[in-house]
Structures are given as C-alpha cells and as structure tokens.
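Researcher: We're teaching a course module on how sequence relates to structure. For the next exercise, students receive a sequence and then see the predicted structure as tokens, so they can try to spot secondary structure elements on their own. Here is the exercise chain.
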Amino acid sequence: MTDWTRATAAQMVAALKAGDVTSVELTQAHLDRIAAVDTDVHAFLHIDAEGALATARAVDAARAAGEELPELAGVPIAVKDILVTEGMPTTAGSTILEGWVPQYDATVTRKLREARMPILGKTNMDEFAMGSSTEHSGFGATHNPWDLDRIPGGSGGGSAASLAAFEAPLAIGSDTGGSIRQPASVTATVGVKPTYGGVSRYGAIALASSLDQLGPCARTVEDAALLHEVMGGHDPMDATSLNEPVPSCVAAAREGREADLTGVRIGVIKELSGDGYQPGVEQRFEESLDKLKALGAEIVEVSCPSFEYALAAYYLILPSEASSNLAKFDSVRFGKRVEKGNVERTMSATRAEGFGDEVKRRIILGTYALSAGYYDAYYGSAQKVRTLIQRDFAAAFEQADVLVSPTTPTTPFKLGERIDDPLAMYLNDVATIPANLAGIPGMSLPSGLAPEDGLPTGFQILAPAHEDARMYRIGAALEKALADEWGGPLAAQAPELEVAK
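Model: And here is the predicted structure for the students to work with:
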C-alpha cells in the first residue's frame, strides 16, 4: 500500500507486525497529510510532531529488538482537546485556557501512551464541548472534508474531521449529548459512546458530569473496537468508573462481519423519525434496515413516549451541571486573568472575555435553573423526565436486543447557517441525547449518502447498559453488508481535498 493514510488501523497493525511499514513511516505520513490539508480543514489545534515521532521511533526499536508490544503500538492517534495531556497544550476549545500546559495526563491519555500510540496532536472542538457544529470553538471553526463549506458536527468535529480528511486513523472523542456520534454521522465515520462509566473521565475537562463519556472515533467498526479496548477499564481515580471487565468489543466486531443475525430483534424507535427528518436520511435508514433484515434480523417497532421531552430535560440538566463545573474558571484558580482591580471585577472581566457566547448562554440558563425557588420546577423536574426515559429504554429492550434510529435528522448543514439560532442547533442532537440521559452505549456508522445532496448520513445503534459488545457485532454486520454494496467503506470514498498552498 503506497498511501498509508488511507489504511485502517487494523491494516496498520498487520503491516507493522509483518514488517511492511514502520511506525515512523506511518506517523510521518499522517504528519505530512496534516501539513498538506489542515489549513483548510482546521481539525487540529496543536500538532506534536516531535513527540509523535519520538514515540514511533521507540516502538520501531522495541519491535526490532523482539519486544512484545500492545496491539495498537505504533498506530498514530488524534486526541480531542478536552483531555489533559502532560507537556502538551490543553484548551477545551476555549481562549480562557489558551496557553495552559498540564503537568499530568488524563487516564485515557496515559493509556494511549502505555499502548505506545504516537499522539499526533489535539483536535478542535466547540468550547468546553458546548455545541453541535464546532463553530463555537474559541480558535475558529472546523470544516467538513466532504464539503468544506459545511459543519463537521460537534462538539467533536475536529476528531471526526481528522478521520474523514485522512489526517489520523483513530481519534478520541467525548459524548455528552451526541458529540461523538453526531460528528461521525455527518463525516461518514464511526463513533461510539460507551456505557457511562466504561471509560474513565479522570482528566477530561468536565461539562456535565452525569452525562459526559469518552469514546473511540474511527473509520471502521473494528478500528473503533480496537481503540475501545485500549481506553476502557476501571479507574480508581474516577468515582463513576465501572469496576468490571472491558467488553469484548474486538471479538464481537470480527464475529459480526461473518454474522447471521437470525433471531436478533432490531427495535426501530418510533419517536425518532418523521417530522424534521430529511427524506434522504430516512431513505438510507430504511435501506440499512433492509440489509439487517436480509441478514436474518427481525425488525420491530418500539415506542418510547418520554423521548418527546428528552431535549428539554437535557437542556436543563446539562446547563445546570455546566454552571457548576465551569465556576472554577474564575481568574483565581484556573484560566487567564483580566486585571480589573479587585477580585470581583477581575473575575467578571475574565469570564466575560474568556468565555464565548454559547458558554455564557448555558451558564446563565443553568444558574437560573439551580437558583432558589426554581430548582424543583426546572432541574428537579428534568431529573424526573430522565427517570421516565430510562424506564422507556428498559421497556424497549424487553422487546428488542438493540434499538436503532437515524443518528441525525439531517445531513451536515452549512457553516453559519444555524449559528444565530440556538434552538435549531440543539435540535440536531434530538436522536442522540436519550442515550446520555440513560447512560447506555450508542454507536453511529455510515448509512450512505443522501440522494438530495450527496452528503453523509448515519445509522445509530443503541444497546442496554454494559452490553457494548452487542452493538459492535450488529454494527459490523451492517457495515460489511453496506460495504459490499458500496465497494468498500464509505469513509474511504470521501472526495480528495485540494492540497493547501
């Protein structure tokens, strides 16, 4: 293979073991690709070429010496800038943290280093993960490689775009209400939100602690599974971390490629379709259902009536928790400082200058929802809706092994189209939010290009809590059926970007 940036992570693993390529060659190929196209894509906020190549050289030397190495050793990776990285800038997409270089690693960052994976750099994101388009980054928007005039999703648009632009074979994302799955949908990549607590959040800058979850981003289901097993596992540094074995995601994905789905019940969520869903998105979703049915699966319709209130509940719970979590960025403990005399004026000026409009909007909303006299009416009521949503999921999983829906109601919209309409922006996450409220795992994989505009659509698979492997098996089966029709993974068919001058 001459262009290693087009290879899957699994192909890179095999080639490294066979001696067909070195980690230095893989890493340099991706650094060269970043240099060639990222001026236009803007997937990265920081590139660590020196650190990535040093890791790659060490891996190559260890392999030459016959040392036993982790499975993904030598395969490069991009990291969403929400994870703290020792010796590398971490901003969470906000100018209030511009220039901050942490003195420690997040647990997931440490696991990547232990897996001997060269970290290419930190990817762009909506400020503090608040957004659905990566237009709310304090450092400029990321562009979708399928159409540079369109959004790459959010808040993890940088990670998804780095995959779609072939700047990285793997990436880390975080998902609070769909920030892994929604960018995957609009960039024709694969994104997975594990069961809440399945991946440590220690060292991930918090947005909404009861909703946030780190997860893998890739171009194939198997690659996502390989990364999931590196990231997952119990962490005593995270009080919400599950003390249980990492799911056998890789075995499930590989089994899925050969799977007969006879006896598997696929539940189509009635409430996640219809009004507001683009016809081409629904068409590709129905075609994917036909593929699953042809593999032997039984398709059933399930109803989750409380989903009607999920968006409203989410946008009370998230701002409330964000208001609390972001209080520490006050010019005294964390972040930049704008001197204005006394502490109160300095704090006010710092937060006014350091936070963007969307962050300010959500802090104000959350502070109001938590204020005296309103807590029960807003935040308390939203938590009750959350319980109803969890009960709806429990009832639906009695009727089906997994639940499915389109990942997003539309294909990627144009940059600037919804930036001044927060409600329209929030509606983009209507299908992904319920999984975060319930803490269950979810996956998005490509379901084809919408006939109206030729842009990517996504197919979402949801599984019961702790059953992450189940969605990998079914996702891999669907991926193979669709790839047989497309002549290969859809991500590999992205239009070639013009090289930046």
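Model: If you want an answer key for the exercise: The longest helix spans residues 376-397. The mean pLDDT is 95.
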